[in-house]
Amino acid sequence: MRFAPSSNSVKRTRAAFTLAEVLAALLFMAIVIPVALEGLRIASLAGQVGERKAVAARVADRVLSELAVTGSLPSGDNGSVTEGPHEYQWTIESAAWVEDSELQETTVRVVYFVQGREYEVAVSTLTEGTTL
User: Mean pLDDT across the stretch 74-95?
Assistant: First the structure.
């Protein structure tokens, strides 16, 4: 007849991680965490650029509309607009259109900054002669 060995004689195995497993996990985290944070930063930048680009396009459209209605702008060929906490600087350029010299191509360029980098939106329209 066989009896089960007593608990004192059985070696207890402990569940634990080896030093190599811990170091491998730390190395994996050291690689993954910076990559994930960079991905979040890029996604945040893309969202901010897209949002401010839409505002800059509205600013350019507003400047072109005012120029078309009044024929000139009281502030001259450049200015700035503050939308919320952000500032948008615009300039107007006008030149003869390449396709037809009787038409003028008027371009409004709006410059804005996102996370310390400069971005630009340009909106153009065609008019006859020098009506703008």
Answer: 88
Name the least confident of 32-46, 66-80, 90-104, 116-130: 66-80
Q: Which two tokens stand for residue 36?
A: 């994930």
Burial environment of residue 124 by CB neighbours within 10 A (0 to 12, 13 to 18, 19 or more): middle
Fold of the domain spanning 19-128: Pantoate--beta-alanine Ligase; Chain: A,domain 2 (3.30.1300)
CA 45, CA 74: separation in Å to the nearest integer?
34
Burial status of residue 46 (CB atoms within 10 A of its CB: 0-12, 13-18, 19 or more): exposed
